[in-house]
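agent> call fold_tool(seq_1)
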Amino acid sequence: MRKNYETQASQIIRRTAQIICVICGCVLLLQLGCQEQAKLAEKPTIAPETVVVGSPEKDETALDKLTPKITFEKTVYDFGQVGTGAKKRVADFKFTNTGDGLLEITEVERCCGVVTRLDKTEYAPGESGVLKVEYQSSSKAGVDRKIVYVKSNDKTNPRITLTIKVTTVSKVSYSPKRLRLFLEEGNAGCPKIVLSSLDNQPFAITKFESTADCITVDIDGSVEATKFILEPSVDMEKLNNNLKGSINISLAHPEEKKARIFFDVLPKFTISPPLIITFNAEPQKPIVRKVTVLNNYGGDFEIESASSKDNTVKVLSQKKIRNGYQFEVEIMPPPAEGKTQFVDVFFVKIKGDNGLGIVCRGFYSRK
């Protein structure tokens, strides 16, 4: 039994020694680790690789982030009211590059009637410029609108719309606007012509012209006033040969250069209808129509003759009516001979006066 106790004691001593050895080993390992860390701390550290400011790689990235921005002080320019003869007007559209990149204006699109001018196409950040838009006013009264498009490298607003507004008005009024003249009235019944300045700007009349000089006026181009009353003189013989025409008055006004008045004359005689047209005509098959000749001034007159150039139209009857005559005429379509239509002129000669003619046009039947 004593031997067994000795054996157990030996085993306990050996296990205790093993545990002590393990603990001592761990302590030694911890001490070695701390010593190595202390040595590393004492060694100088190597600085990491750095990028020098201003290198090409960084500059290119920065440039990519710069954005130009075009800003106009206003995008609509209103000229207000201008005269029909006003000179060219110029609208200044001021703008600034409010971004931090280089602004490039690539194109200026314009509509007809305007001219654009730009000193240059590139603008640095903060730099300003002016786009000049030149406009020629219309010769007709009314509201006009012109559009200009500005294209640039501004990514936010690559295409900006600029608008010009103009209200064209007459700066000189005149009346009447149209003259109705009569052959059997004194001076053709021509009224006085009144011209007045609407903006109180004095002007002069530099020229007075009419068709075939039928109507004339004595003028003094050196006289300026805000109102003129003209007394026209009519040449009745010339007027009888020019039943329609116009009067052109040249003005020395800053914004009104011309006044135009149309005139027409009531002819002494009228033939009705003024044109005869027939459809589905058949060769040698007569067509009957009525023609009336009237004196517009109510006087009596005599018919000297009535006939047609190619004898296609013949008078069947003629009778006197109030202020004129009525004819019954026969239109005889000639042989077609491959033609699709025929034309002739029926002419009525009035004694002591000019004659009157009617064009007669017929279209053959497709049969």
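agent> call fold_tool(seq_2)
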Amino acid sequence: MASSIPPKRPRRAPRVLLVALVGLGALYAVLALTARPAAPHPWFASRPGDRRILVISHQGGEGVWPSNTMLGFERSAALGAEVLDADMHLTRDGALVLMHDQTVDRTTNGTGVIRDMTLAELQRLDAAHRFSLDEGKTFPFRGQGLVAPTLESLFQRWPDTRFGIEIKQTPVEIAGPFCALIRKYGMQDKVLVSSFRQENMNAFRAACPEVATSATQDEVTLFFALNTIGLTYIYTPNYQSLQVPETFSGLTVLTPQFMAGARNRGLAVQPWTINEPGQMARIIGLGVDGINTDYPQRLVDLLQRSPQNP
């Protein structure tokens, strides 16, 4: 009886795999040829008196002064911090104000969500009410008239200072008035904008493309992944800095490999929030561009002794 077994067909898997690999190689080649480092921005240009590593006073030095207050910014500027770091929200009546949390509960003598308050209501609260250096035994700045300042008041007070402004959990509509205020005071080269929320950052970049920005959490994750597998050469960043923690979810972010990848893409590296002298010294040794800290005086003192800082 004749066999009914059909003839063998040629195997296509190796051919398909070969075509896929060739296509992938061609894609990588195109990306490598077209990818560019981050566009340079004047915010990062060295200025007279700058240290090699910029001192970024996180929330105006919240380890020693009440967070996001004029007192903290004044004292940070006086000790020579090159960058004043602040967190921005939008009030119900459209004012851009500085406070870290979405609510006023943790730092003031009031309660409520900033977005639901007017500027007048917010500034009736004591922004230093809960600030303590001894775990609540004393409150050295309570009742001294410190209020949540407006962003405009910072621009008016320090028109020649660099700022790092983080857009907090606020509606994307904040991008328009934020950009308008930056342009009003001619601060396009003096503001570096950050946000964890991609939607807020996308809206701000569309409204204010001339202002420097830092990578969002999603963008840092992508950069870290590409850098880990050696593919940063195919990547064109649409931001100028990487503001990252030293470690995240058990992974060490700040490594020589990370620094090399950032340099290859023309990106500044400005880790946060670095508070202990030993940690500061370790990170200085990596050659970062700035350090965001709650204790700016500690960093100033350390940099004065560091051979890597002129």
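agent> summarizing second result for user.
The two ends are 94 Å apart (CA to CA). The chain has one domain: 52-305.
agent> awaiting next instruction.
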